[in-house]
Write a structure and sequence with these properties.
256 residues, elongated, 59% helix
C-alpha cells in the first residue's frame, strides 16, 4: 500500500485505540516511510491484541458449559426452514435482525451443540452472549426477586445481544417463575435474539408454565421473528456410547 493508504489506516487505528489524530500528523511531518510502516505495524498489533482480549472476555462471560464448534457437527439430520442455511446463521445476520432460533428435537440430537457453537461464533463476532439452562435462569430470577436484585439482573440481560435458553421444557416452572420468565421474553422481543432448545412441541408448553395463555404469549413472541429448526435422527449420546462400547470390544479382541 502507498503512504496515503498507510496514513488512512493509521488514522483508523488511532480512532479504535482512542488516540489523538496528532499521531498521524506527526508521523506525516517527521517520519520516513519505513518509520511510518513500523508505527502502522505496532498499532495494528495492539488493535488485534485488544480485539482478541475482548473476544476472550465475551466467551468467558457467556457461561457456556462446554466449547462446541459447527465444524464438529453432522448436519445430515437437521432441517432448516426454506431459504435459511447454516451459513446464514453462522455469519450472525439473525442477531443483527433481532431474530430468534428455536431448535426442536428429541434428547441427544445436537440442539445444545448447535446453540453453543452459534453462541461462540457470536462472541467471536463481538456480540454479548449469555447461556442459561431454563431452570438455572428461573432460579436466578427468583433469587434476584427475593433479594431485591431483579432489576440489576434484568439490566444485565437487556445488555446482551444474544440470550441462549437451553433445555426448555425439561423441568416444570411455577407461576412466579413463569411470570418472571415471561418478562424476560417480553423485554427481549424485537430488541435482541434468543436461541431456545426444546424437546417439547408448542402444544405442550402450557403444561410447563402452568398457564396456557402465558405459554401462548411466549410462543407468539418467540416465533414472530424466529425460525424453527428441526433436529432429528438418532441420539448423538447413544450413538457415541455405542461407538465407545464397540471400540472397546474391538480392542479387547485385538489384545486377546
Amino acid at each position: 500500500m502507498d503512504r496515503e493508504d498507510l496514513r488512512q489506516r493509521l488514522s483508523a487505528y488511532c480512532k479504535q485505540l482512542k488516540l489523538s489524530q496528532r499521531v498521524v500528523a506527526l508521523s506525516e511531518q517527521r517520519a520516513n516511510e519505513e518509520q511510518e510502516r513500523f508505527l502502522h505495524d505496532v498499532l495494528h498489533a495492539e488493535v488485534e491484541h485488544r480485539n482478541q482480549s475482548r473476544r476472550a472476555k465475551r466467551l468467558n462471560k457467556a457461561n457456556f458449559p462446554s466449547r462446541k464448534r459447527l465444524e464438529d457437527f453432522d448436519f445430515s439430520n437437521v432441517q432448516f426452514p426454506t431459504g435459511v442455511t447454516i451459513e446464514d446463521l453462522a455469519d450472525g445476520s439473525y442477531i443483527r435482525q433481532k431474530q430468534n432460533l428455536i431448535f426442536y428435537g428429541q434428547v441427544g440430537t445436537g440442539k445444545t451443540h448447535l446453540a453453543i457453537a452459534l453462541g461462540m461464533l457470536a462472541c467471536e463476532q463481538d456480540y454479548a452472549v449469555r447461556f442459561y439452562t431454563l431452570s438455572d435462569l428461573v432460579l436466578r430470577l427468583g433469587e434476584a426477586h427475593r433479594s431485591g436484585r431483579l432489576e440489576r439482573l434484568m439490566a444485565e440481560i437487556q445488555g446482551l445481544d444474544l440470550l441462549i435458553l437451553d433445555e426448555w421444557g425439561y423441568v416444570p416452572v411455577d407461576r412466579q417463575g413463569s411470570q418472571l420468565l415471561f418478562r424476560v421474553i417480553s423485554d427481549c422481543y424485537e430488541r435482541k435474539s434468543l436461541i431456545v432448545t426444546t424437546n417439547m412441541e408448542f402444544s405442550a408448553w402450557g403444561t410447563i408454565f402452568t398457564d396456557e395463555q402465558m405459554a401462548a404469549a411466549m410462543i407468539d413472541r418467540l416465533v414472530h421473528f424466529g425460525y424453527l429448526i428441526l433436529c432429528g435422527g438418532p441420539s448423538y449420546r447413544i450413538a457415541n456410547a455405542l461407538m465407545r462400547k464397540n471400540t472397546a470390544a474391538v480392542m479387547e479382541v485385538g489384545m486377546a
